[in-house]
Design brief:
The complex is a heterodimer. By secondary structure, chain A is of the alpha/beta class. Chain A has helices at 12-18, 21-28, 80-87, 110-119, 136-147, 150-155, 157-170, 186-198, 216-233, 244-248, and strands at 36-49, 52-65, 69-74, 95-100, 103-104, 121-124, 204-208, 236-241, 252-257, 260-264. In chain A, α5 (136-147) crosses α7 (157-170). The termini of chain A are close together. Chain B is an alpha+beta fold. Chain B is built from 19 helices and 11 strands. Chain B starts with a helix and ends with a helix. In chain B, the strands form 2 sheets. In chain B, strands 2-3-9-4-8-7 form a 6-stranded mixed β-barrel. In chain B, strands 5-6 form a two-stranded antiparallel sheet. Among the domains of chain B are: 2-48 and 386-538, no CATH class; 52-96 and 110-152 and 291-296 and 309-383, no CATH class. Chain B has helices at 2-13, 16-51, 69-80, 133-137, 160-191, 199-212, 222-225, 232-238, 314-317, 325-332, 357-367, 380-383, 385-423, 425-433, 438-469, 471-482, 489-492, 503-530, 533-538, and strands spanning 56-60, 84-101, 104-115, 254-258, 263-267, 273-277, 284-290, 298-309, 320-324, 346-351, 375-379. The chains are: A alpha/beta, B alpha+beta. Chains A and B meet through α4, α5 and α6 of A and α1, α14 and α19 of B.
Amino acid sequence: MNNTVRNAIPMPNQASVASRPTLRAYRDDAGKSSRNAIAAENLFKTYRKNRIAVPVLKGVDFAAEQGKMTAIIGQSGSGKSTLLHLLATLDRPDTGEVHFDGKRIDNLPRSERDLFRNQQLGMIFQFYHLLPELTALENVLAPQMIGAGIWRYLRQRSALRAQATEILETVGLAHRLHHKPNELSGGEMQRTAIARALVTKPRLLLADEPTGNLDQETGAGVLDIIERVNREEGLTVVMVTHDESIAERCDRVVRLVCGRVESVD
Amino acid sequence: MYKLLLCWRYLKTRWIALASIVSVTLGVATMIVVNSVMDGFTQEMQQRIHGILSDIVVESHSSEGINDVNWYQERIQATLGDRLEGMTTVVAVPAMVSFQYNGAPHTQQINLIGIDTATYASVSDFSQYLLHPDHHQQLAFNLKDGGYAPDRKSLPESGWAYRRDMARLRKELEQESKRNHLLRRQVEEAKAGAVALPAAMAKNEADTEIDSNPSSEDASDADNQGLLPGPTTSIAESSEGPHYFDAEKETHPGIVLGISIGSMRYRDPLGEVKDLFFIRPGDDVTVTMPGAGSPPRAIDQSFTVVDLYESKMSEYDSTFAFIPLEKLQQARGMIDPISGKKSVTSIQLKLKPKVDLAKARDDLRAAFPPDQTMVHVESWRDSQGPLLAAVQLETTILNILLFMIIAVAGFGILATFFMIVVEKTRDIGILKSLGAPGSGIASIFLAYGVLLGMVGSGAGAVLGLLFVHNINRIAALIEKITGREVFDPTVYYFTEIPTIIHPFMIVWVVFGAILIAVMASVLPSIRAARMHPVEALRYE
């Protein structure tokens, strides 16, 4: 996968037919070769602002190998966050496909996409995105509460709480279980967010500039945790960043420039 | 689970949302208060209207009345069957009552009603409104010794004792005036040249002369009339014949007057409400009524007031006077001299409990078509229909207006909820990124609305019930602060504001308020559910 991807022809249909033999292969025989945890093919996405169409992604192919850390790097406005949102099924591409584990997920019905995000996916954001009304422990428990119905949650409450506490302990927040986000530091909030992303034991972790709002040292600590999870549990990580030094710590780096993939290292 | 948790946390951290529910609380409280008071008022009024009226009246068109009473009674019995509980015959005529108070003559228009003492109690609670406690059990037109209205301080001493005292006083005054008259005459005679007698002799002479000749023409001397309450002596003398009417020992036929005919409620300079009685049990009155002939002649008859009644329905209390049926029929000439048949002007009926009033009335109307028989049929509701309808309309309009207030409060909730949804945009994005479905997010805000509605209307119900419970104390307080009487007893005859709490009404009001709160939270909930996760996450 070290070849440079170029979209000579911006028309989506032709592009998908003419190029990307490798990606097509991944999709076709997904059953035997699931090296790619998540893959996107020829994604186009245009946002409309005041009736002016702003193309953000102009035919992006992307794949993240199972158990590896993949960085998406690019300037502001290069479309890296949009790509991540499409991978997370938070948004749907205008054209193109997203595959998870060999199955197409971008065209699933809303309820199944909700289930996918809840069960298979963990997400970390630059601004932590914790729920301000809940304590750290409750924030970590939130995906479980959403996934399990009220009765199942109440039945398994103690087990789930123990599990969430344990995860918070592994990210070094054993002493902050019952603090609200506004009582936590930036690094602590991000570590809580990581714990929340990991609590459902997902297959894929998507991180949107996880260190973007943190100082060097704290950011490094957060990255250490992500790397540790990747290394020890073989969790596939896709990380969006604009920081070259962070990208260097990843197995692969996909460079986005103006909505197109410029290079893959 | 997250829905309940977040809903609860939002409620706990956003007390301002409770401010939006205060209007619901006040609306609910007001509705409960207004409905309770209006219901109490209506019931009180219906009781008063119905109090001395029977359920149904079969009334003659003619002032001469119905002659063949038995035929009518049998037909009514056949029509209503076992729906009928009681039946009585009544003569009602317009009349005039006159009496004197402090020497000044008073005349008042009344409805004179002759009632059958044996059966009247079977159709009406009339006797319950009489002042003398003994009359509650058994209605009789006899003057009691005393003990009228033991709990009413404003009624001066009444009954036989009072009558005797008054009669004795009157006699003494009479004699005194006669003596004066005689003396004056003697003095004049002496002046004219006759032999002057010693004063003592003159006195003795005067005494013997008066005693031997009590029904002298001079008895009703104009000089002393002013001091005499009641018209007694002149009436006593008008019933001529050898029998001399002694007010000290005898009475005229009994009459029961409405309390407002012979009394006045007023406010003294200190602002206290007082009753002034022109007539009290024991006094005599003259009633002038039309005879049964055509054209009717005016007939005068003296009566002794044996009791007063107070139904607290001012229209009745100021116009109705009751006398025994027999006396009225005699006085008006309603007894056929040949057949001895007695005419009546109406037949009053009482129905068994829970019998459909309107249905019974319609059946009777079918049995007695007004164009073919001499009578028309009315229920007590018909006779006060416009009044009852007015109160009903008032209640309905008030309810609609107050519900509008709660609906306006609904828009307040709507606006507040929209702001909360906007404020929580990022949270909504986070929840969606964690896989929460739109329906789950909508239910957070819906549950929020239900919870607020419940809190608001629950508080309103408690507030309203407390208000109703203490309404008279609150009225007194308002009176104290503003100096204006909320319920003027000289107008309403109420000493207290009547209230009735129907539990069903409260359930409806609370349910309606919760429904409005939920409806107001539907739109913001839908907006929250439809929010695009990416845009919500980007929201700053």
